[in-house]
Each structure stands twice: as C-alpha cells, then as structure tokens.
C-alpha cells in the first residue's frame, strides 16, 4: 500500500499542527464564517487559508503566532515581519488546473521545508 503525500498542514493557535489529505477537513476547523485565501508569496504554488472574518470576530479566532512564524519561515521572511493570522491556518498545495478543489499533494521539498518551519516555530504535530 502506498501512502499519499498530504495536501495541507493545519496550524492551530495553540501550536498543534495536523497534516491532512482533504482541505475540506481543515476548512471545517476554521468555522462557518467564511474562509480567506491568499498565496504564500506572489510566485508560490502554496496557498494559505484562514478564517475569513477574523478582524470582526477576534474572540472566536485568537491570534496564531505559531502560524505566523511557520508561514514566514516557509516564505523566507524574518518572523518579525510576518502578518499575524488569527484562528486555525492551513498551508496547502495549490493546483489551478484542479477544478474540484484546487489542491494538490505537497511535494517532498515542500513537506521538508514546512517540517523545518514547524520545528523552528515550536509546533507539535499529530
């Protein structure tokens, strides 16, 4: 049996991180207030998904310093320049030709870069 590579990593505000295969599972963890998406960098094949109304619902979506550090590390930016996301944040492989959900499995180099970033940020993985 071959193991499929993960499609995303979900980083919670408490530093727990989970690899997953269906982005819809991560989206469920973000809540029902909508989801915002953006590219990690302008030329990246990685996208970031987070709760879409975090500025208006700060009590429901606490700051996520762990995700800020991970995203900055993977993007190659200093952590102190990172925008502070709120709530659970997913970093996922993006495929613009996938009409169903626009995801793709993370490549081995991407997985390694994310794993190093998780360790540098002090995250724990399940």
Unreliable stretches: none
β-strand amount: 15-25%
Instruction: Decide which structural class fits the backbone.
Output: alpha+beta
Could you say which overall geometry the principal axes of the C-alpha atoms support? globular
Overall number of strands: 7
Q: What share of residues is helical?
A: 25-40%
Average the pLDDT over all residues and give the rounded result: 89
Helices and strands, in order, run as EEHEEHEEHE
| Terminal-residue CA separation | 21 Å
SSE layout and pairing:
Layout: E1 8-11, E2 16-20, H1 23-29, E3 35-39, E4 46-51, H2 65-75, E5 89-94, E6 103-104, H3 108-121, E7 124-125
Parallel strand pairs: 2-7
Antiparallel strand pairs: 1-2, 1-5, 3-4, 4-5, 5-6
Helix pairs in contact: 2-3
Structural description of this entry:
This protein is α+β, with helices and mostly antiparallel strands and 126 residues long. The chain has 3 helices and 7 strands, in the order ββαββαββαβ. A hairpin with an 8-residue loop joins strand 5 and strand 6. The longest helix is centred in the last third of the chain and has 14 residues, at 108-121. It is globular and about 35 Å long. The two termini are 21 Å apart. The mean pLDDT is 89.
């Amino acid at each position: 049996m071959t193991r499929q590579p993960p499609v995303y990593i979900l980083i919670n505000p408490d530093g727990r991180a989970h690899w997953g295969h269906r982005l819809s599972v991560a989206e469920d963890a973000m809540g029902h207030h909508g989801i915002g998406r953006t590219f990690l960098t302008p030329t990246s094949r990685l996208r970031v998904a987070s709760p879409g109304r975090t500025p208006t619902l700060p009590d429901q979506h606490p700051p996520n310093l762990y995700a800020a550090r991970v995203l900055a590390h993977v993007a190659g930016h200093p952590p102190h320049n990172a925008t502070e996301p709120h709530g659970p944040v997913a970093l996922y492989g993006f495929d613009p030709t996938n009409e169903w959900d626009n995801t793709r499995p993370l490549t081995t180099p991407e997985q390694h870069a994310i794993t190093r970033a998780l360790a540098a940020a002090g995250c724990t993985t399940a």
